Amino acid sequence: MEKTKHTKYFSRCLFLLPAQATSYDGNRLSIVYFCLSGLDLLGTLDQFIKTDEQRKEYIEWIYKQVVESGEGFRGSPTFKLCGHEHSESREGDNKYDPANLAATFFGLACLGILGDREIWTRLSRDKILSYVASCQRDDGSFGSFCIDGKVAPDYDMRYCYLATGIRRLARDTSERLSSSRDINIPAMVGHIKNTESFQGGIGQGQTGNVTEPHSGLTYCGLSALKNAGQLNNKEWGTTLEWLVGRQCDERTSETQVSESSKRDDNDSSEEEQGDPQTGGFNGRVGKLADTCYSFWVGASLASLGGTNYVSADLAREYLLNNTQNTLLGGFGKTPGEIPDPLHSYLGVCALSIFGQPGLGKVVPELCISEKAFETLTGGDSTSVAV
Amino acid sequence: MSHNFDDLEIIPLRESDHALASIAYTDEYKQATGLLRALMEKNEKSLRGLQVASNVIAQNPAHYTVWAYRIDTLKSFAADVKAGAADKDEKLAALQHELRWVDDIAMACPKNYQIWPHRQQLLELFEVNPDLLGEELTLDREIELIDYMLSDDSKNHHVWSYRQWLVTRFPTLVNLDSELATTSIMIQEDCRNNSAWNHRFFLFKLKNDNKQEWTTKPSFQEEVEFVANTIDKAPQNHSPWLYIEGLYSHYKKDIKDLQELTFKYACLPSDLGEDEEPLITSSHALDLLAKIYLKEQEKSKALEALNLLEEKYDPIRKGYWAYRKKLVEA
Description:
The structure holds two protein chains of two kinds.
Chain A: H1 3-15, E1 16-17, H2 28-42, H3 45-48, H4 52-64, H5 101-113, H6 119-122, H7 125-134, E2 146-147, E3 150-151, H8 158-170, H9 185-194, H10 215-227, H11 237-244, H12 250-256, H13 291-303, H14 312-323, H15 341-353, E4 362-363, E5 368-369, H16 370-377
Antiparallel strand pairs in A: 2-3, 4-5
Chain B: E1 22-23, H1 27-42, H2 47-59, H3 64-83, H4 88-108, H5 115-128, H6 130-133, H7 140-152, H8 157-169, H9 176-189, H10 194-208, H11 218-233, H12 238-250, H13 259-263, H14 283-295, H15 299-313, H16 318-329
């Protein structure tokens, strides 16, 4: 594994990105999280942050992304409205600068990775937890943010994951009863169960109907349950079967199972495009392997106790031999693709899950290191408070 | 159409010294987002605001608050049109142009997350204010856009999700049989299009969920034959196997009925004569066979099928097949 090159890759992205990265402008905290957490797992964070002063300055930058109300984080300084020199005549407001769930989760994670032990004296657990609860709809699902009491119109299983992730990081487990407004857990559990597809994986839906199941959505649904202490493995047997089916094996589809004679010409199987697939994971039935699914599937299997049900050796080989960029560092989505922070980070996380030596341990259902988890919660990641 | 912004004080992006993941923004992007911040802070809902929003979205469609600002602006236009505001004609024109504008963004950024909820809100706005549209709301335009986008990427998850939303949200405007026919054609074109299989399952549920007697009708048998024919084209294609198992499970039919189908693609050595070599062309058939045998309490045969998967026909998942064997033995 090209540890030195990956360290350089993450450090470069943390420093400056070219104008082509403008499409990430709304989610700069996500880039920061991918890169800092990547360095954290590689064990090379001190090569990027060389002095304690530097560390403090980066911590301050993360705090600058906290919205004025203190309810959470914005995704990027681009959203910051007030606080500029001429705003003393405050006729307007900050309604278009809301906290959002993704940025809030990433912001908290970054502070944990940077080893900030003052976090809960500087941030209000109560404000954050109440805001998370306000992003929940009656049907148990969540939107990405909430403006004037109105939940954003996007439906996505990711927000269940992020909401429960924030809740797990921000709740004070030493207090037996928290006075904060809490998420409606039974409604969320019902929502997630409703999105289990007939195929076994989790899709998403808002009316009891389910879209095509997807490894990323499945990860989010199962992790949300796990973070809330509601994952009962026995209920997810079909999902487990669907998940193990995501590991690609050209050897079975091409050789051992003699299918080629039956394949008709119109059949535009994606497997015939030439990239190596064996050991990688796909996001949906019949699709090609992609680096990030090695994590989404691997971590989902870890939550269900099934990492050994697929080939960890082939999973590592796929990433190291095919999508790792040995020149620039980082990982691409597919072989030959330019690396990007998300795939680079999830490539490292997947390798950690599948037992690559020399990497930090990742908490599968939170996608941060065990060390960062302990900094934020003072607790052990193997126990979940319900 | 160009608007005047002279009265507006741009709010610049203020970046601190130790910024992380800075982006070398272009001047054009800095200018557009500077105006957007000023408009947002004033909470100004105007035609020039809509133009700035378009400009920011063109440069960065993943900028999430601009979409919230945009739909709020459009909703305020709808109210202004109703109230007979002085600029109501221009605002009405902007509203009527909006779906077309979304078409262009959708085609330029087919993987964007924000366009679809925006479009959903627009349709709901036109549904309650039909006079804004100037014509009756139909889904023709939506289906046309969807078909166009699926012709480019037949598995685009966002587009399929939007299609499913349309069918549930506007049941009276959708022809379920024509939707079903679309999935038949797509599956004939590419039997591995799992998105089309998923949509098909969803449509059948919608059509038949309140009629359990459907499973005894010829149309159910026709569906089973459609699946069987598709399996025969590519027996190792997982989609139709998942589909038929899903169908049997959802409508509580006995999977024993599928034994004959599985025998075409998998059989066990113990079922054959001594010098016969089993021809196994689908690991999925073997898996289903194991489930059928387990259900019939023929545990040794179920274990035999699982052994074949573990050792020869699907060794990458041997840990999983070993686990399944444990479940049989338990």
